[in-house]
Amino acid sequence: MNLKKMHIGLHQSLILAAALVAGMAQAEDTVDTDSLYLQHCAACHGTDRLGGMGPALLPDNLSRLKKSEAERVIREGRPATQMAGYQTLLNDQQITALTEFMYQAPTHPLKWGKTEIQTSRDVTHSAGSLPDQPVFEADLMNLFLVVEIGDHHVTLLDGDKMEPIHRFPSRFALHGGPKYSPDGRYVYFGSRDGWITKYDIYNLKVVAEVRAGINMRNIAVSADGHYVMAANYLPHTLVLFDAANLELLDLVPVENGAGDSSRVSAVYTAPPRGSFIAALKDIPETWEITIEDNSAVIRRMTTDTLLDDFFFDPGYQHLIGAARDGKHGVVIDLDTGKTTAELPLPGMPHLGSGITWQQEGRRVMATPHFRTGAISIIDMDTWKVIKTLDTEGPGFFMRSHENSRYAWADVFFGPNADKVHIIDKQTLEIVKTLQPEPGKVAAHVEFDRHGEKLLLSIWDDDGAIIVYDADTLEEEKRIPMKKPSGKYNVWNKINYEEGTSH
Description:
Elements: H1 16-24, H2 33-40, H3 42-45, H4 67-76, H5 92-102, H6 114-120, E1 122-123, E2 143-148, E3 153-158, E4 163-169, E5 179-180, E6 186-190, E7 195-200, E8 205-211, E9 215-221, E10 227-234, E11 237-242, E12 247-253, E13 264-270, E14 275-280, E15 285-292, E16 295-302, E17 307-312, E18 318-323, E19 328-333, E20 339-344, E21 355-359, E22 362-368, E23 374-379, E24 384-390, E25 398-399, E26 406-410, E27 420-424, E28 429-434, E29 442-447, E30 453-458, E31 463-469, E32 475-481, E33 484-489, H7 490-494
Antiparallel strand pairs: 1-8, 2-3, 2-33, 3-4, 5-6, 6-7, 7-8, 9-10, 10-11, 11-12, 13-14, 14-15, 15-16, 17-18, 18-19, 19-20, 21-22, 22-23, 23-24, 25-26, 26-27, 27-28, 29-30, 30-31, 31-32
Helix pairs in contact: 1-2, 2-5, 4-5
């Protein structure tokens, strides 16, 4: 990737002698954090903390990084990156003060508009300039991309051989899952810092990048592959790009009729509808966005409550939203925009990880919960909860495949995070609980295109991808990786396989 723009650590040293002088000049009882930041951090992270070669150092952007870990990174650096350690240059008081400074909201207003977006765009390979044949041999529909958050890399994996093909660096804190072009050749990554990276899988090269916002939730690619849309927390915008070269097409302030603005929780593609659907975090509306003449046309659907997460039925006729109160969900008919049902979902469901399948002639959906050890199973005809499975703790991800009789659910939170439940999709019972690596989080399953093999992450810096036989449930091999998180199969994603996230 473009190393001039890429984050490969949380800090990069400036001139060693100047840094040493600045560090020694601090009084014992006071720390001039502004001067420390400008001396040690601004070159990579920007004088306004919006980021540059390094990521933005703002509270929302660092929300997944504990302060203690941030201090450790400043003190020790990151191996195999441009981030040098500062323990010989700064004392403990200075490091703590810098960390606190990073986690405080800036006092000046932050702006990221059309000019900033257009200036950030970098096209390294224009559309059509690279060969149309892949530089490796594999089933192009059975490739996986594995995001390794331990050192901000991505591994391209052969899904037949279950062997890595290529490993490349990514932007800091990829978020929301990569999205493929309809033919599977290109993948679009979105980072928490707002960067969208278009990557040519065939040629193993970054072809374009652009920064859509300061803090971004996720991106979506239109069903025809022509557009990319970004959902931002900061600023409160939706941003539309030409998928070919990431050229800015439209920037939409997210506001209601009264002028109240909102963060965007997420944006999704609705293929049968030829539209995007956006979840708004701060105003009780859901938006459907169609594209006309390269501009976004907004259709607003008013809801009775704030919705934080979405799920769709297979035909994208209905949207199921999780209420922000964490106690229930609502069903919205996307044609009428009306709420047609309410669901008792008391444990803050993670609907974005929900899955569906056919059970005894009916379509059911299942969702884990963030706050309670349960999986809710819902009849999608009656919108009734037909069963609640007790689990060994709150979960994050569920996955299955049309060709598999099992659904897998992790126990991501709490003392049993090293366990994974396997559910028989017809009996609706947990038939097996695995503990692949005692003491280490086991999470996020993804099946291969055939539903015959699956991958499970050991979510640890000294982690691995475990390959299982989807029928016998036996472990076949382990591939060492650096805190692997999400895994994304090309076929499953572009065909909207019912057992994976969309």
